[in-house]
Amino acid sequence: MNLFRALGLTLLFLLATLSSSGAGEADLRGIIAKFAAAKGFSETGAVVHDLAATGDPAVERPLAALADGNLYVRKIDSLVFVGKEGGERVELFDPLSGEPSGEAAKDDIIKIKVNNTLRRTIRDALGTLTLGAKDPAVRLAAADTMFKTPDAANIEPLDAAIANETVASVKTLLEQARAASILSSDRPDADKLAAIALIGARGDRDAVSLLTSAEANASGAVKEAATAAIANINSTLALWDAGQNIWYGISLGSVLLLAAIGLAITFGVMGVINMAHGEMVMLGAYTTFVVQQVIRTSFPGLFDWSLVIALPLAFLVAGLVGLAIERGVIRFLYGRPLETLLATWGVSLILQQAVRSIFGPTNQEVGNPSWMSGSFDVGQLAITWNRLWILVFALSVFAVLLYVMKRTPWGLQMRAVTANRRMAASMGIRTPWVDALTFALGSGIAGIAGVALSQIDNVSPNLGRGYIIDSFMVVVFGGVGNLWGTLVGAFSLGVVNKFLEPYAGAVLGKIVVLVLIILFIQKRPRGLFALKGRAVEA
Fold it and tell me: Were both Cys, which of 62, 97, 139, 369 would link to 304 (CB 3.0–4.6 Å)?
């Protein structure tokens, strides 16, 4: 039975590929009309074969509707429609174009019946159509489906498709799908050994799953070959898994860099332990939410630009709040680190409660623009676009900030105040305003960090709380006030965290990292990159 079905499908595929333009619409409608006169499943199956033999993609609609039990014959004129039931009425649609064709009472139409055998025939016919589709992406998707759901009946159609395929990537996947189907067939062991070699060369997790199933049902040389191929693939995948962990660590490091880089400035230049830094991140995330809400209601066409619009606004909002905190609270507490810690902790609680009162305690929806959605693969590495863009954004912010610190008069003044506050003041630098603007800059950078974090984390009043401790660890580990130390510290801690998590868990992994940092600080109290300045001299 399978042999005859496979031969029939092969013939259908050859007919489809030999037909350059497919059947005309009138011919297709004539074949579809045969469903009205078909008696029994065998005659219906013959009509299915006739439709598939045309090679016209338009027949996918009526065949799919038939497989789902949604193909009807109207009694009054024996016309065939795709139907959608709704109560006692059925909406009718043209089987080729899909255009609405009115509706009918259930008593006025007859549903064309199908069974499992006929559904398999339809599935194979649709597979044959997609294998012969003009679009390579459609053929590639069909080959991938056949690889993941192997069937001995697919071998002959795949042979025909391989012979006619001109795109190398599609042909490779077709050959792999054929090898998968051979493993599920009763072909000789020599064919199966060749198939195992081909699937083993693919080297991904789908190949492991397929070979594991074949190993369980095989014996002798075939079983040994499958076992060896699985072992080889797993050893290769272990290397890819290590690479995936490194990517996850770099991704986490970019997030930590964004969250910590503003803190590195305020902590390094001003010596202020700002426990409200996380709330600056939160304000940036909520600014993004507000911008997207305005765009959704008034300018929906600008949604893909929402993050670009939110960036300067988030910097401005967080920077102004930071300036107000410095002028209103912190400037009275310089030289008293414990008081600044307690005061900024109180400010953080006030900001959290203010956001709860305005926006509510629940998470807010912040959408991903199209250019930050989805993912792509590099070998066996899965890379999401949002994480990649956040990495690029974090490095861009770092580069701009480094330029400001090293190449601008304001950066020179900040470095002068860091090195020696009294000498800087004696040279005419207004150190109180340097402090104020530095705190505003650090807060503004935290705000734009919130824009990025809104794309990968829940936007809630507690958003900043999850990053404040990690930010301090990054700053202390890298060296207080040193931007390069912050960069190296963020990526180092990110990678170490991701390698520890599979063994120790997320919480215990953070505890281990904290212990390691404490031990490191015992040996290097100034961190990786020591910065000479006021804090060191004190």
Answer: 369
